[in-house]
């Protein structure tokens, strides 16, 4: 593994951060805010460290899979460290651990915050905060669709199941084209949402920030009350549409836009994803209505937003779910665990794995009935091989094990059960809000520092997929 | 572009200089802003607070003078009242020349109005009139005006005090920020040094030892220098030159 190539690419990541820090600096400079110098200094540091390797490292041949994986894992860590700089240099509520938490939460598109008062932040810093989501979102798309497919037949072959023809495109020859198309889809979705939100009455600044957070399935808002602040149905519906879109495999969105065979209308996974979400919305809405919380229309409105928000791993809120009936909270917990689709900007367990998991369970039950029968698990008429099924089961077990371990650690720090459990699943799933102490309109400020650190590890594990971290450790050995 | 060693070294040091220059400039800007805030704290707010305190004291003295006048002691009463009046007007002038807060001018106007109404009462003779010894006149009329004037001065003091506390907390925040900038600069310089060390080892030291090894290998029997230098700089040129030299020696020996 060539260290200099890895350092050079990490430099590119820093330069991208530097660019967004510079834009944030310009906003602060224009508005004469206290975050002007911290943002300028951070941007210059990122620029200097980004350019430095270019002096030495000559133009290199293609990176291999191991180097790619190392770049991505370290890229997320380096970028999170760089992302802290504007926060710690600005001060306020940002202690060292708080800045690290906010930065990791941003880049992993989790959206959990430690801020009690978001609105006190200068606009430049708010823009930087949303930018971390946007950078993290595009990062994961390029990683999943360009780097991982190189590991053919490897442990990460789940990525080849859904849109195989796109995934199997040779990285070396077609990469540039796919990068362009994906970047266009990503930017177009952001622009479209910004326009629609502005049309429905949101200020341009808020619209841009909320679009960044939606398309990246992040969840950082510029308001303390999140989307509830606007109390605007048009805004809520717009955000719901884009949250669902951002939870779908970007390759499929690309396929739909390019009128290809693999598109969102033909995918049984997308169909199931939407149906499950729809059932969830109805269950939550019925319970809210029958328990006398809201009238039928309000129940449907709030249930739809909350289920889509958690089901797409975004984490915006229009109501404080901490006060909702426990049945609705349980459904929302299911969606927090399930997460959205592979190849989207979401993290965590992923709907694809849950789908394969349940199909596999069905197969096992059939086998109990007919022990000598031969059954195959299928997805869109494609056979899912046994190896992938086993890997999925192992992943699910590892995932559950990880969030239970985090829950244990948090409860050891005297955090109550529901807060600890929901914080664990919400961070490993890169969703954002949990319940009780860390509910949809709450924050993570009261979690002890050690707990905050453990939760950031959770976020990184969820973002980078536990298998990738394991793979990297194996490579190192 | 072929980057020679000279360019690489020059560019690295330029970046290091840029890093240090940026850290230095940011520190200077932060400290200037700190001293400006400190100045504001001391000069602007503290001056007005002191002036308000003197005004309050002068009002209290005037009140004592009025009581002496009510007792019929014209000389002693007027002496105190006139002295307190001059002190009050001087402090009011200081406060008027030190308008730093929004709405401070309105507060000054209020003081001027309430004080002139109050002054108009004690300016008229009290000794040898029906007001001498009239405690209900004092209680219901002049004392009320005295309280109004005092309240308006207190309001000005509150405004400046609040602003002073605010400025003090900003000052604290700024100093913390300045410290954090310093820490970030130190850590950045350290990381930069580690990276520079890595690159120097990788691109300067390693190729030279490679070259030395290949010269040794040549001596031990290989017929060509086989080093693994991929860069396109002075070391590569040195390798080519040694190779040419060796080829020429071999040719001459033949």
Question: What would the keywords be for this entry?
Answer:
A: 477 residues, mainly alpha, two-stranded antiparallel sheet, B: 254 residues, Four Helix Bundle (Hemerythrin (Met), subunit A), 2 domains, 0% strand, rod-shaped
Secondary structure layout:
The complex is a heterodimer of chains A (477) and B (254).
Chain A: H1 3-31, H2 36-56, H3 65-90, H4 96-107, H5 123-147, H6 164-167, H7 171-199, H8 204-215, H9 233-246, H10 250-257, H11 268-290, H12 296-311, H13 326-338, H14 351-369, E1 377-379, E2 382-384, H15 386-412, H16 417-428, H17 449-464, H18 466-476
Antiparallel strand pairs in A: 1-2
Chain B: H1 5-70, H2 74-96, H3 104-123, H4 135-219, H5 234-253
Give an account of the 3D structure.
The complex is a heterodimer of chains A (477) and B (254). Chain A is built from 18 helices and 2 strands. Chain A has helices at 3-31, 36-56, 65-90, 96-107, 123-147, 164-167, 171-199, 204-215, 233-246, 250-257, 268-290, 296-311, 326-338, 351-369, 386-412, 417-428, 449-464, 466-476, and strands spanning 377-379, 382-384. In chain A, α15 crosses α16. With 254 residues, chain B is mainly alpha-helical. Chain B has 2 domains: 5-190, Four Helix Bundle (Hemerythrin (Met), subunit A) (Up-down Bundle), CATH 1.20.120.240; 193-253, no CATH class. Helices cover 84% and strands 0% of the residues of chain B. Chain B is rod-shaped. Chain B starts with a helix and ends with a helix.
């Amino acid at each position: 593994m060539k260290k200099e190539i890895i350092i050079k690419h990490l430099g590119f990541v820093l330069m991208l951060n530097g660019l967004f820090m510079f834009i944030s600096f310009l906003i602060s400079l224009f508005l004469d805010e206290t975050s002007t110098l911290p943002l300028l200094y951070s941007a210059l540091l990122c620029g200097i460290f980004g350019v430095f390797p270019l002096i030495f490292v000559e133009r290199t041949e293609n990176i291999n899979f191991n180097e790619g994986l190392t770049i991505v894992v370290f890229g997320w860590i380096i970028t999170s460290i760089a992302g802290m700089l504007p926060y710690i240099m600005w001060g306020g509520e940002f202690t060292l651990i708080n800045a690290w938490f906010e930065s990791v939460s941003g880049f992993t598109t989790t959206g959990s915050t430690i801020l009690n008062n978001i609105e006190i932040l200068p606009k430049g810093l708010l823009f930087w905060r949303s930018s971390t989501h946007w950078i993290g979102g595009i990062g994961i798309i390029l990683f999943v669709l360009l780097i991982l497919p190189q590991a053919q037949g490897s442990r990460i072959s789940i990525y080849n199941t859904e849109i195989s023809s796109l995934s199997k495109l040779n990285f070396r020859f077609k990469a540039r084209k796919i990068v362009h198309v994906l970047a266009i889809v990503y930017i177009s979705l952001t622009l479209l949402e910004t326009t629609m939100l502005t049309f429905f009455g949101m200020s341009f600044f808020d619209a841009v920030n909320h679009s960044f957070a939606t398309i990246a399935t992040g969840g950082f808002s510029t308001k303390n009350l999140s989307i509830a602040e606007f109390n605007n149905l048009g805004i809520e519906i717009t955000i719901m549409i884009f949250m669902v879109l951002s939870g779908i495999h970007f390759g499929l969105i690309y396929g739909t836009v390019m009128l290809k065979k693999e598109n969102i209308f033909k995918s049984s996974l997308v169909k199931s994803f939407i149906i499950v979400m729809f059932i969830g919305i109805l269950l939550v809405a019925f319970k809210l209505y029958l328990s006398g919380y809201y009238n039928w229309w309000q129940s449907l409105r709030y249930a739809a937003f909350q289920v889509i928000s958690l089901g797409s791993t975004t984490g915006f809120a229009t109501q404080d779910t901490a006060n909702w009936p426990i049945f609705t909270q349980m459904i929302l917990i299911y969606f927090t665990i399930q997460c959205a689709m592979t190849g989207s900007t979401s993290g965590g367990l992923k709907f694809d794995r849950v789908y394969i998991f349940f199909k596999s369970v069905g197969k096992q039950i059939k086998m109990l009935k007919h022990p000598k029968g031969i059954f195959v698990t299928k997805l869109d008429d494609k056979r899912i091989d046994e190896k992938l099924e086993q890997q999925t089961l192992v992943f699910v077990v590892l995932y559950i094990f990880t969030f239970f371990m985090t829950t244990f650690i948090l409860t050891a720090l005297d955090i109550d059960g529901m807060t600890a459990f929901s914080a664990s699943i919400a961070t490993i799933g890169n969703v954002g809000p949990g319940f009780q102490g860390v509910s949809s309109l709450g924050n993570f400020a009261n979690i002890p520092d050690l707990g905050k650190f453990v939760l950031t590890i959770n976020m990184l594990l969820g973002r980078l997929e536990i298998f990738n971290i394991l793979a990297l450790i194996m490579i190192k050995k | 572009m072929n980057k020679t060693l000279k360019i690489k070294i020059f560019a690295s040091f330029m970046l290091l200089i840029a890093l240090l220059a940026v850290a230095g400039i940011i520190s200077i800007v932060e400290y200037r802003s700190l001293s400006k805030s400190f100045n504001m704290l001391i000069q602007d707010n503290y001056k007005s607070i002191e002036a308000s305190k003197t005004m309050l004291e002068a009002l209290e003295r005037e009140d004592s003078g009025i009581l002496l006048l009510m007792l019929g002691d014209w000389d002693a009463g007027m002496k105190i009242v006139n002295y307190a009046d001059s002190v009050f007007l001087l402090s009011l002038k200081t406060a008027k020349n030190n308008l730093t807060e929004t709405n401070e001018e309105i507060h000054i106007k209020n003081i001027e109005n309430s004080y002139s109404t109050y002054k108009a009462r004690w300016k008229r003779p009290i000794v040898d009139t029906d007001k001498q010894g009239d405690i209900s006149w004092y209680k219901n009329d002049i004392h009320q005006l005295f309280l109004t004037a005092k309240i308006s001065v207190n309001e000005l003091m509150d405004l400046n005090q609040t602003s002073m506390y605010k400025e003090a907390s900003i000052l604290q925040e700024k100093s913390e920020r300045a410290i954090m900038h310093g820490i970030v600069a130190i850590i950045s310089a350290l990381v930069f040094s580690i990276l520079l060390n890595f690159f120097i080892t990788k691109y300067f030291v390693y190729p030279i030892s490679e070259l030395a090894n290949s010269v040794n290998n040549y001596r031990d029997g290989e017929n060509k220098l086989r080093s693994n230098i991929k860069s396109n700089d002075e070391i590569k040129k040195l390798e080519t030159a040694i190779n040419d030299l060796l080829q020429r020696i071999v040719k001459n020996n033949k």
